[in-house]
Amino acid sequence: MGEKTKFELEFVIQSSPQLLFQYLSTPSGLSEWFADNVNSRGERFTFIWDGSEEDARLLKRKTDEFVRFCWETSEDGCYFEMRILVDEITKDVSLFITDFAEEDEVDEAKMLWSNQVSDLKQVLGSA
C-alpha cells in the first residue's frame, strides 16, 4: 500500500449547523445518508453497507462544528472529517470533507462523497 493522498471537498448545504451536525454525528443521522445502517457503542461506530461492515473510531467531535473518524482497518493515521463552516457575512453553511485515498482512487473517492452528500441534501430538503 502506497502513501495515501489527502483531499478536501466543500459543499454548500441549506441547513442550520445544529440540524446538519445531527446527520454527521449520530448513528440515526448517518444511517439516513452515509451508510445503510450505523450502530455505535461509545466511541466506536459500525457502518453497514450491503451487508458488509466497517468499524470506525470517533477521534474528535465538537458540537455543531465537526466530527472526525478513523477506520479501524487504517494503520496509516488516515481519517475522515466532516466539518461545518458558516460564512460570517452571508451565513451560508458549508460541509467541508477531508479524507484520504490511494493516489489512483482520489477521483473515485471524491465522486463517492459527492453522491453521499447529494443524498444528505435530499434528506435535509436542501437539494
Task: Describe the 3D structure.
This protein has about 130 residues and is α+β, with helices and mostly antiparallel strands. It has a single domain (about 5-120), classed as Alpha-D-Glucose-1,6-Bisphosphate, Chain A, domain 4 (2-Layer Sandwich), CATH 3.30.530.20. The protein contains 3 helices and 7 strands. It has helices at about 15-25, 25-30, 105-125, and strands spanning about 5-15, 35-40, 45-50, 50-60, 65-70, 80-85, 95-100. It has a 7-stranded antiparallel sheet. A hairpin with a 2-residue loop joins strand 3 (about 45-50) and strand 4. InterPro entries: START-like_dom_sf, START_2.
Element-level helix/strand string: EHHEEEEEEH
* Silhouette: globular
Helix content: 25-40%
Residue-averaged pLDDT, rounded?
Answer: 94
Number of strands: 7
Distance between the amino and carboxyl termini: 37 Å
What is the annotated CATH architecture?
A: 2-Layer Sandwich
In order across it, which strands form the biggest sheet? 1-7-6-5-4-3-2
Biggest sheet character: 7 strands, antiparallel
What's this, in brief?
Pfam families: START_2. With 127 residues, the chain is of the alpha+beta class.
